[in-house]
Please model this.
Amino acid sequence: MRVGHPYIPNTREIREQMLREMGIASIDDLFADIPEKIRLKRALKLPRAMSELEVKRHMKAMLAKNKPFTQMLSFIGGGAWPHDIPSHVQALARRSEFVTSYTPYQPEASQGMLQTLFEYQSMIAELVGLDVANASMYDWASALGEAALTCARITRRKRFLIPKLISPERRVTLQTYVVGPGLEVAEIGYDRKTGRLDLSQLRAQLGQDVAGVYVENPSYLGFLETQVEEMSDAAHKAGALFVVGVNPISLGLLKAPGDYGADIVVGEGQPLGNPVSFGGPYLGIFACRGEMKLVRQMPGRLIGMTTTLEGGKRGYCMVLATREQHIRHERATSNICTNNALCAVSAAIYLASLGPQGLRGVAERCAANASYAMKKLNAIHGLKAPIFDAPHFNEFTLNCDGTRMSIEKLNSKLLERGIQGGISLRREFPELGETALLCTTELHSREDIDRLAEELEEIVGGQR
Model:
């Protein structure tokens, strides 16, 4: 009788047979390339084996230690924003027709998935004010990295300019992307009063070697850039491309980047019907002007609509796929592949459900809540919100230099009271002092913000 499975080495006999076939004496011989001095010479210190029931109990006990934002009041943002997701969005996105389309970047993708991605592209293009959007990227950071490479390929230049006040995660990802082609990333300073990009520094750094200029609106710290037209003009006069990063919800209120000269728009699609989750998956937005020199250098995939030769029936197909699996490696623009297409499906359903007026309503509530929160918190002795004199969207800075507390201690005290505070900015931006980044969305009520203000006033007051 056969023991075990012929393709799974789960018995001593099968393992020994595999070793004989490979011509080695032991499994240790497979690791001969690893220096002897760094090999572990003892058995792993693992806990005893547990039954399935014990594993379930153990995992439940571990998970019970977590305190997600759904179980407590949270003001954390910084690129992962909690928004209301209508029940039907996830119900439709989780239908088996979508869920089982594991690799919808292949030419044989179903008509249903292709149509959904086409609709997603169409709505994103309309939202950002550009002609073409691809069928999504991994996240905002990867979209930014791909935008820098796209600018370099088109202009054949080697420098990419970014604002100093940018998400540290996006900056690190961008730096990783540009290592291979040898591009240089240079930072532009900011006005210490308003936080906005320093136009004089931008103009001074623009030269014949600059491939692209990147700006975020709203910025990572929540304030709005009000000089985007001037930035766009300066970049284009120098022969560089103008790249804008966005929170798509903000475009329910703000002018579309394409309307003030953006050549490429990137952003994070997580707030469009996708839940906040630790590490993702998220959804990278990437759109560009309709010039073919841009479209053909755009990473990812582009879904198009056509009609059949016979009968004129509407159909959808992949019209551009510049990844290395589809074309010669040396001509590929990226290796973006299984790119969280289910997140794009959710975004398409969310946008179609809200429509322009619904999206505007969400954006208005986000901005109104932030305005109310800044007024409430700024009235507390020792706190300043925001630290920059500029209009904000749904995120803002809170400084506590006027107290005898650090942001970490302030957040710890809030956590004891069931509130998640903002993101400490001291490590990435030490010049801002004891400052945190806070976020409000339509999920926050006036009562929620009042409670935050009351708790902070009590915490800060206890230190005086």
